[in-house]
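To close the chapter, one final illustration. This time we ask the reader to focus less on the individual chains and more on the assembly as a whole: which components sit near each other, and how the overall shape emerges from the parts.
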Amino acid sequence: MNEPRLVAADLPAHGGVGVALRHESAHLHVAGEATYIDDMREARGTLHAAFGLSARAHARIGALDLAPVRAAPGVVAVLTAADIPGANNVGAVLHDDPILADGEVQYLGQPLFLVLAETVDQARRAARLAQVDYQELPAILTVEEALARGSFVLPTVTLERGDAQAAIARAPHRLKGALDIGGQEHFYLEGQIAYALPREDGGMLVYNSTQHPGEAQARIAHALGVELHRVAVECRRMGGGFGGKETQGTLPAAAAAIAARHTGRPVKLRYDRDDDMLITGKRHNFRVEYEVGFDGAGSILGLDFVFASQCGFSADLSGPVNDRAVMHADNAYFLPHVRIVSHRCRTHTQSNTAFRGFGGPQGMVAIETVIEAIARHLGLDPLAVRRANFYGPGRDVTPYAMQVEDFVADRLCDEVAKSSDYGARRAAIRAWNAASPVIKRGIALTPVKFGISFTSTFFNQAAALVHVYAADGTVLLNHGGTEMGQGLFTKVAQVVAQEFGIDVDRVRVSASDTARVPNASATAASSGSDLNGMAAQAAAREIKARLVAFAAERFGVAPEAVRFAGNAVEVGDVQRLSFAELVNLAYHGRVQLWASGFYRTPKIHYDPKTLRGRPFYYFAYGAAVSEVAIDTLTGETKCLRVDILHDVGRSLNPAIDLGQVEGGFVQGAGWLTSEELRWSDAGALQTHAPSTYKIPVASDVPADFRARLWSRGENVEESVHGSKAVGEPPLMLAISVFLAIRDAVAAAGDGRREPRLDAPATPEAVLRAVEALRAGGETQGGGA
Amino acid sequence: MKRIVEVTINGERHELALEPYRSLLDVLRNDVGLTGTKKGCDVGDCGACTVLLDGKPVNSCLVLGVEVGGSEILTIEGLQRGPERLHPLQDAFMRHGAAQCGFCTPGFLMMASALLDENPAPTEEEIRFGIAGNICRCTGYTKIVAAIQAAARDKAEGKA
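The assembled structure is written out below.
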């Protein structure tokens, strides 16, 4: 058993694995010295680029008159699709994402041409001067329209086990309902950016804020029509990613590279914030319909889900995102008879993409909403219904045929129910609501079970390079992962420091660079430290083994007698020397002091055709209790208290992990309560700045916020030092906030009828739901 | 038509020739080379570009460069009290893990320093509302609030 995960308020700079170390760049962050791409000193002759964007959702381009753009002050060149030497595509899966629209625009905001000018301001002003003849075509802007017209980016997928409809028909209780779940803008604080510098002999160096430098490298090379070995992509850090730079950082990179090749000058392309929000895809919004049959204890006997997501104009990552939604529609519950239909709707809007959770959150909101509806229908505590449905012995196989071997959601729920005093507080809230006509309160306790691994099995590989410098024994580490604030570089450095028994500040991590580690997977799917930590560990162990063999021979001891700790190496009783001294001796003994490491996740396999297999190496778990109050006259909501217990296995760095838990939760709460995306009837995104798109700020976070890492966390699978992935899972803890609001809204009625409250639960949505419920009219679903 | 503006930035006099439409943020980043101040939204809603203008916090993207003639500006680069001496807030942000991606951090530090100048012993609620003009997308704010509280305490106890 681990020690309790107490995080000191004083993070040290030294230590190995399991220590709450500060972020490797903390000293740079606080001094304003951490360099993001837009901060780099510009090379001589740098040009600035800006896209000209489509002003229509769907249109044929009759004529594109760029003469006024070319004539504008400072403009050096204007590029269209015809100027792209190679492939006009940045689509990661299907080749359906043009860099510049060619003859037809497919969403309002789509890049149509690229202006290059001496200054950013000149480029942006000139981009507005184009005369575009749009011949409008019918635009599909919503999921409903897409379903009605059979408009899909990918074929519909159905996952089925048993006979859901028959089980529902036989069940003593039945409910039907629907739920709309909104999308979410990433709002990484650093917007999309790339800076391309032409190099000799057809080479191109691109600094790109991207979670997937290798993908950017490939798309740039194809767009330029050159071999991959001529293109290098580098990223030291991102100012946030959240999935928004998994594929969609590639567009500015390819465009900047094309422009740099065209002009022979360095080109920087940084999206203005409004442009960023207009151009890039978001979290998929979902329409969910359900039909469920259950017994008197709330046990689900049959469940039928129909999911329809808005994918936007191209496929991007919509296939795997929607697959993951399907694979998380069980969350922590055994579904004996189940059918999940997943429609992937094509619309003339931004191409929706990866966002922390990658479809999982939408699937989980769906099932958790069903659980609460069952509880309300039966007049049971939702926690009792959850317990009645948990995975357990004899009921431990997911709808996609994976056995759940590490289930701890039940224990987490029990512990957080106890520590948060859930039962007593629910009773107190019931009493409060009975006496309070205007302010209603609500509470919800929800678990999270999140599958860890890329569902595309081949992505589950990583490589690292470890160099030890003979002159001073310092270590340089490079791996294929990218740093976006999640602390990956810190954790992997800790792993390497631990192997060598040296302080972590003796290990430096260099920028992600396709010229150092090739074919690296995206830093995504929460897998960064799992994959890169193991690869770096393998490299460090190889060097260590050589050092051990050298020391054993040199000092005439058994290899087991050579120990690394405290920046020193003990060679039996014979010698004690510093790590640097041993390294220097080994160098003179002609020992190779660098190594590469490689890791591929074992055990996993998955057939995307049948949606069956073992897509996940293990599951990460958590549980949260949220309490809210709503004002039934204004719809205003306030989150009063949150208790979180989250399982990160044996934490590599409790400070960083707790930061992920808190930050993920708040981001999830924003998604489900305040962050609302609105498009006009013409398909224009109306919420394209933080002035109209409400992101949580410090005063929105509950003052009573108690997040803890689970002290009993273990990983039953062999992972890096027994840790578990932490990037995405905590976001879904915020489902408890949404369901607590639904609970409070239901209390505005008779407490038994199901409110029709969609996500996000904005004040407007809450007010509508309260009024509908009090009017006794529309409710979602009806018993049978 | 450029105008000449004389301004003190981090204690140093600058004479700048500026087009009247350029924001203080762009002037700081591009003309003065102080890139610690970040451009997040450029419309005054995220707070990443917060600097102190004559001691008061402003979104530098909403201030024109030509407006600041004769003023004193403090940016993140000037917050430090010496080559090896961090401002207590910088130290507290590091110790509390208040930065993840770090992009919003300079803006938060400038806003928090203005807050503590005005109110050396703020309550937690005053801190939460004091920094409500700044967006952090990574941390959930808990560690930022804790760091500001700690810095206020350290200042009060004369540790910093």
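Chain A is about 30% helix and 25% strand. The CA atoms of residues 405 and 457 of chain A lie 20 Å apart. With these observations in hand, you are ready for the problems at the end of the chapter.
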